[in-house]
Specification:
single chain; about 250 residues; alpha/beta; Rossmann fold; about 10% strand
Length: about 250
């Protein structure tokens, strides 16, 4: 009984101390991308700002007004950053953006070779993630489909949306993050190239990037050897890839 009363009083105290957050007009930033495009890295870099959250993966596609109010109560930061890369089986319906008035959208894109080869590496580490897909399915039915849908929905034509290319992020993180801090309305002025662990624990697969590079706590421009000739052939034969790389000005 005493434990119950103690817990109840603790909850009441927490509510009274933080109820003012409900009335704050907080901004939501959603990161839209495929898997293995750097969304965990980007989210961690943005969290360098004292006014930006560092949450584990939050599915903004299922995010509603009640979820928004809960996060407003729970976190003091004025900017809530959420990321949810598209899963293989959801490519036909991604992205579904939350209906929030004060929202910024960051579209994150990585070239198809590095994206797909990284997904294949992840599948070797995590057998449950291996969907048995062929190169054509990875490239045309997944990578292409996601970024073509973004073009079709004209997300990047909206004034509250911006594009981040993974290559630019890892090659010039300070410049890119400085521009992003300004875009999302953060009080952070200078760009960054290092980051910290999230407060709720280590990154792990299914919620974030569970690899080793992310744990270095600094931006690493890891060059990939393009030795998968079949994947290269699939990409070069794809008209959709050509269309998307042109539209997104993706050169590498």
């Amino acid at each position: 009984m005493r434990t119950y009363l103690r817990n109840t009083l603790s909850k009441i105290k927490y509510f009274l101390l933080n109820v003012h957050r409900v009335f704050q007009d907080k901004k939501v930033v959603v990161i839209v991308s495929t898997m293995r495009s750097g969304s965990t890295l980007l989210k961690a870099l943005l969290a360098n700002s004292p006014d930006t959250t560092h949450l584990s993966e939050v599915d903004f596609q299922k995010f509603n007004k009640l979820d928004y109010w809960k996060l407003k109560m729970k976190y003091k930061q004025k900017i809530i950053v959420m990321k949810k890369p598209c899963w293989y089986t959801n490519a036909d319906h991604y992205p579904v953006l939350p209906d929030l008035k004060n929202m910024k959208i960051v579209v994150l894109i990585r070239n198809p070779y590095d994206t797909v080869s990284s997904i294949k590496e992840m599948a070797k580490i995590r057998p449950k993630s291996d969907q048995g897909l062929e190169n054509n399915e990875y490239v045309n039915d997944y990578w292409c489909k996601v970024y073509k849908k973004i073009l079709k929905c004209k997300i990047l034509d909206q004034p509250n949306a911006t594009l981040v290319r993974y290559t630019e992020l890892v090659q010039d993180p300070i410049r890119v993050t400085e521009e992003l801090f300004k875009f999302i309305g953060s009080e952070q002025i200078k760009g960054v190239d290092t980051y910290s662990y999230p407060k709720d624990g280590m990154w792990k697969w299914d919620n974030d990037d569970g690899g080793e590079v992310i744990k270095t706590l600094k931006v690493v421009d890891k060059k990939r050897d393009k030795n998968d000739q079949r994947l290269i052939d699939t990409i070069e034969a794809s008209k959709c890839v050509e269309e998307i790389t042109t539209a997104y000005d993706l050169t590498s």
